[in-house]
Write a structure and sequence with these properties.
The protein has about 180 residues and is mostly helical. The protein has 8 helices and no strands.
């Protein structure tokens, strides 16, 4: 498909190029990859890249060859990534089977989800991840005093929320992290 010298609208020109080339390039990539979905994915990404560089691609000797080359390189890159991923899993073994959370953890998670986002994040980072208040502040972009206030309010809301569930689920209280200053 010769495109040089065509003074039409670039979007319309690209649309014509796409319509004329996509089926052939997809068939070719399907033959190379052996996977139709993978072929469609890499061809779509290659055409996206062609559109972003259309002024350069349209001037190439063969814009279709440009798209095919990009799609082939994307497929090889994905194959290498998958191969490396598989090797890593073979080296370290299968992931451990997921452990079902205890009922008291489910109650706690539900209570945490009911909190305002800032309070939930502060409690999880401080009490469950054992981060000091200053680090919680740094990670969340809040001031230390704001984090302390979120912790106080969040713990108070959790105490009310968990009051009935404590007897049922055996939750005595949320333990503060080891030796950290308490707001």
């Amino acid at each position: 498909m010769q495109l040089r010298g065509d003074a039409t609208d670039p979007a319309a020109e690209f649309d014509r190029f796409y319509a004329a080339s996509v089926a052939a390039v997809t068939r070719q990539l399907f033959a190379l990859t052996g996977d139709r979905a993978e072929a469609e994915d890499v061809v779509a990404e290659a055409f996206e890249r062609a559109w972003l560089r259309w002024s350069t691609v349209r001037a190439a000797d063969s814009p279709e060859a440009w798209v095919r080359t990009v799609a082939r390189r994307l497929a090889v890159s994905r194959w290498r990534r998958l191969k490396n991923h598989s090797r890593a899993w073979l080296r370290i073994g299968s992931p451990p089977a997921p452990v079902e959370p205890a009922p008291d953890h489910l109650v706690l998670i539900a209570a945490l989800q009911a909190l305002p986002r800032a309070q939930m994040v502060a409690i999880v980072l401080h009490h469950l991840a054992d981060l000091p208040v200053a680090q919680v502040a740094a990670e969340t972009g809040a001031s230390v005093s704001a984090v302390k206030q979120q912790l106080v309010r969040g713990r108070a809301a959790l105490a009310v929320s968990l009051a009935d569930e404590r007897l049922v689920a055996g939750i005595s209280r949320i333990e503060p992290s080891g030796g950290e200053e308490q707001p």
